[in-house]
# Entry
Amino acid sequence: MEPEIFINFKHYENAVGKGAEQLLNEFQTVNKKNYYYCLSYMDLYLKSKFNDMNIFSQSLDSNGYGAFTGSISMDSLIDFHIHGSLLNHSEKRVKGEDIINTVNNSKKKGFTIVLCVENIEEVKDYAKLAPSYIAYEPPNLIGGNVSVSSAKPDIIEEAAKICEHYDVNLLVGAGVKTRLDLEKSMELGASGVLIASGIIRDPKPINKLNSLTNLQ
Ligand code: G3P
# Structure
């Protein structure tokens, strides 16, 4: 099976606004159906230009439309033709009750949730909600050079077993930089990776994306 690659643009200066558009222009030339691009809310309008690409939000709130200042609702995302989002990223944590409501709501609306978790206890707690994906990312490795697949192989294997039991796809992230990191993650039972700095902060993001998934 082809690895699923979720690229989190975060709020890096070269990956918001004009930068987001430029990166999507480049990635469009090598786009695949198993690539997902997680954009800042203010850049989600780009979906209308890059309609053939899987564009996800980086976060969302549990409310619908109404008097909710600053909200990102699932309803508004769907109206923007955005059908998936990260939730509870380590840099944007969400209350437990909101996670439960949002995941339940996502199933009714056919919306894809990538539920981020920080440790094996959270994998156990949240896999039973059966979101589309669980993304295991140890916070201390995020943005660093040590890959989660080298630092936490036992936890990935355990998380993969739990996720398989609940029919949830497992992603892993933090410090993923190379094809070897990706292959190791897959061997341990992940269906793909969630990656940010390894691609976005690389001097040549498109080459980096290619080097991850295509044989050189
Ligand atoms: O969402 C992806 C992320 O938190 C991992 O970041 O920079 O270690 O790939 P990075």
